From TrEMBL:
It comes from Paenibacillus spiritus. Belongs to the LysR transcriptional regulatory family. GO terms for cellular component: cytosol. This is LysR family transcriptional regulator. InterPro entries: HTH-type_LysR_regulators, LysR_HTH_N, LysR_subst-bd, WH-like_DNA-bd_sf, WH_DNA-bd_sf. The keyword Ion transport does not apply. Residues 1-58 form the HTH lysR-type domain. The keyword DNA-binding applies. Keywords: DNA-binding, Transcription, Transcription regulation. SUPFAM superfamilies: Periplasmic binding protein-like II (SSF53850), Winged helix' DNA-binding domain (SSF46785). GO terms for molecular function: DNA binding; DNA-binding transcription factor activity. Transmembrane segments: none annotated. It comes from the Bacteria.
Length: 297
C-alpha cells in the first residue's frame, strides 16, 4: 500500500465523491478509482459503498480512515521538514481572499512576494470570508484572509487592519450633507448588502437589529464596486469599510461617518492549527506579516 493510494482514499472519503476527489487532486476519475480498488484488493474488503455518483464509507472504510489520515499527515510533515532542510523556496500556495480585500490590499503584496520568490506560484481563490474560513479549516486552502474574529482554538491568526464601516448614500440623498448618522436613523432606508457568504452580511443585519429595526434588503452582491454603483444610481444605501469608501467617486456618492454604534471591521490572516504549512506558505506568512504590519499599524 502506497502513501499516494492513502492520500486518494482520504480525499475521496472527505469529499464523498470520486469525481470531486479527482478534481481536487488534479487527476482523472479512473485513476483514483483504480488506486482505491488496489487498496480494497490488498485488504480483501470494500472501503466504499458505491451509490451512483456518490460514495460512503463501509465499516472497513471507517476503521481505515483515521489511521490513513495519521499516516498521510505524518508523511506531509516529514516532506515539509525535509524541504526546510534543503531550503527549497518553490512550490505553490493556495490563498483565499474575499474580493473586496484582494482588490485593495494584496496586488502589491503579491507582486513583491513574487519578485522575491519567483518559483513559488500563488493560487488565489476569491470567496466570501465565511467560505474562505471553512476552506482553510477543511484543508482546501493553506491560508485565508477573513473578517475577524474567528476561533483561535482552530486557527493561527494575525490581524493587520482595523477600521470602521461608513455609510454610503446617493449624492442627492437627504442625509448626504450630514457629518454623522446614527444607525437607528436608517430604519426606513433600503439596504444593499454583500451576499450571505460574506461576513459583513450578518454583521450589518445584527447591528441593525440591535438598533431596533430589521433592515430592508433590496439587493445583494459579491462585488463592492457593483454595490457602490447601485448606491450611486439611487437603488439604496450601503455600509462599507473606510478603505473602500475612500476610493469612491464622491461626485455621485456621499460618504458619511456612522455613529451609535460604530461598527468595527477587522481583517486578519488565518491558517489552521495542527496543519503543517509548507516552506513556501510559511515564507508567505512571514513576508506578508512584516509588510502589512508596517503599512497598516
Amino acid at each position: 500500500m502506497e502513501i499516494r493510494q492513502l492520500q486518494y482514499f482520504v480525499e475521496a472519503a472527505r469529499l464523498g465523491s470520486f469525481s470531486r476527489a479527482a478534481e481536487s487532486l488534479y487527476i482523472t476519475q479512473p485513476t483514483i478509482s483504480k488506486m482505491i480498488r488496489h487498496i480494497e484488493d490488498e485488504l480483501g474488503t470494500d472501503l466504499f459503498h458505491r451509490e451512483g455518483k456518490s460514495i460512503r464509507l463501509t465499516d472497513a472504510g471507517e476503521i481505515l480512515l483515521p489511521k490513513a489520515q495519521n499516516i498521510v499527515e505524518s508523511f506531509q510533515s516529514l516532506s515539509s521538514e525535509l524541504d526546510d532542510l534543503r531550503q527549497l523556496k518553490q512550490g505553490h500556495i493556495r490563498i483565499g481572499l474575499p474580493p473586496m480585500v484582494g482588490a485593495h490590499f494584496f496586488p502589491e503584496v503579491i507582486g513583491l512576494f513574487h519578485r522575491k520568490y519567483p518559483q513559488v506560484s500563488i493560487r488565489l481563490h476569491e470567496d466570501g470570508a465565511r467560505k474562505v474560513e471553512n476552506d482553510v479549516e477543511t484543508g482546501l486552502l493553506d491560508i485565508g484572509v477573513v473578517v475577524l474574529p474567528v476561533s483561535e482554538e482552530r486557527f493561527h491568526v494575525f490581524s493587520f487592519i482595523e477600521e470602521s464601516l461608513e455609510l454610503l448614500v446617493p449624492a442627492g440623498h437627504k442625509l448626504a450633507g450630514r457629518e454623522g448618522v446614527r444607525l437607528a436613523e436608517l430604519a426606513e432606508e433600503e439596504f444593499i448588502l454583500f451576499r450571505e457568504d460574506f461576513a459583513l452580511h450578518d454583521l450589518i443585519i445584527t447591528e441593525c437589529v440591535r438598533a431596533g429595526f430589521q433592515p430592508k434588503v433590496v439587493y445583494e452582491s459579491s462585488q463592492w464596486d457593483l454595490i457602490a454603483r447601485m448606491v450611486a444610481a439611487g437603488l439604496g444605501i450601503a455600509l462599507l469599510p473606510e478603505t473602500i469608501a475612500r476610493d469612491l467617486d464622491r461626485s455621485r456618492i456621499a460618504v458619511i461617518r456612522l455613529t451609535e454604534p460604530v461598527i468595527p471591521w477587522q481583517l486578519g490572516m488565518i491558517w489552521r492549527r495542527g496543519r503543517q504549512l509548507s516552506f513556501a506558505a510559511r515564507e508567505w506568512v512571514a513576508f506578508t506579516r512584516t509588510l502589512l504590519e508596517e503599512r497598516y499599524r
